[in-house]
Amino acid sequence: MKLPVYLYGHPVLRKVSEPIDAEYPDLKVLIEDMYACMYASEGVGLAAPQIGRNIKLIVIDASPFGEDFPECADRKLTLINPELEVLEGDKVTRGEGCLSLPGIYENVSRVEHIRLRWLDENFEAHDEEISGFLARIVQHEYDHLDGKLYIDRISPIRKQLIKSKLNNIINGRTRCDYPVKYAPLKK
């Protein structure tokens, strides 16, 4: 099943997601489909709101960054009902992009160290301190579960400078090499 990525402007991206349990319908298939969608879109992370579901589910495969960021090597995570805690430390600014915001990349400041608690696809509990670029990927995807996008973390001036690009996404005037779902047209 080819899942479309919901693009900026779609209301599903701004809703807070709900926890799920092991009885969630066809969960294993959904997780497989999310990984397939993420790989086909050349992403390293995908949160359920990005495929139109407001549930607390994230898939990550950070291994493409493993050569530059060792903490990402061989890190493939399925996060169900994750809970993120920011640990003390300085913020680091790096460029970020998002499958829901094609063609836009902005510098975002994020903490380098987090504690993450989650259930995996077998509903086994995990608790881990995560650092570096992997922590950034997790935070980016986790924001989606709270109805936030990385552009919410950039300065108002930067947001104003990319306003035309955002409007192009909202109005369906952007090209993607993967299936997408645009925001409903306003009447």
Describe the structure.
This protein has about 190 residues and is of the alpha+beta class. The chain has one domain: Alpha-Beta Complex (Peptide Deformylase), CATH 3.90.45.10. About 20% of the residues lie in helices and about 25% in strands. It contains four helices and nine strands. The protein has helices at about 25-40, 130-145, 155-160, 165-170, and strands at about 5, 45, 55-60, 75-85, 90-95, 105-110, 115-120, 125-130, 180. A five-stranded antiparallel sheet has the order 2-3-4-7-8. It has a two-stranded parallel ribbon with strand order 1-9. A two-stranded antiparallel sheet has the order 5-6. A hairpin with a 5-residue loop joins strand 7 (about 115-120) and strand 8. The longest helix has 14 residues, at about 25-40. The protein is globular. The model has no long low-confidence stretch (mean pLDDT about 95).
Instruction: Give the CATH H-level superfamily.
Output: Peptide deformylase
Could you say what the CATH topology is called?
Peptide Deformylase
What is the C-alpha radius of gyration, as a whole number of Å? 16 Å
**Helical proportion, percent range:** 10-25%
Order of helices and strands: EHEEEEEEEHHHE
Largest sheet: 5 strands, antiparallel
What's the architecture in CATH terms?
Alpha-Beta Complex
Strand order of the largest sheet: 2-3-4-7-8
> Which regions contain 5 or more consecutive residues with pLDDT less than 50?
none
Number of domain units: 1
- Overall mean pLDDT score? 96
Quaternary structure of the protein:
single chain
Strand % is: 25-35%
**How many strands in all?**
9
The helix-and-strand class reads alpha+beta
**End-to-end Cα distance:** 31 Å
> How would the global form be characterised?
globular
Q: CATH class, anyone? A: Alpha Beta
